[in-house]
Amino acid sequence: MELGRLRIEYTQNNDLIQIFNSPTVCSLVINNKVVDEYRGVIASRFTLKGMIEKENKIVQIEAKMGFLFMKLFYDGVLVSKKFMGFG
Q: N or C end of the chain, less CB within 10 A?
C-alpha cells in the first residue's frame, strides 16, 4: 500500500507517530501501523484518531485537518502544525 508523502513525524517515549498524504488518502501511522485514514480527492476538515497504551494509561493521538493546516495532538497537547494548503 502506498502511503504517499510523509508530512509530519513526531517521536515521544519511543513511539513514532507519522502523517502521510497522497492525492487520495491521508493516513495516521503509529509505530509503523496505519490506525486511521481519510479517503477522498477533495479534503474538507477531518480528524484522524488513534491511541497508544503506555503503562496502564491510554494516550490519545489526534491529527486534525483544518482549511490549510494539519495539527497533531499527543495526549491533548499540540505537538506539530504543518501547512497543507497545496497538498
A: N
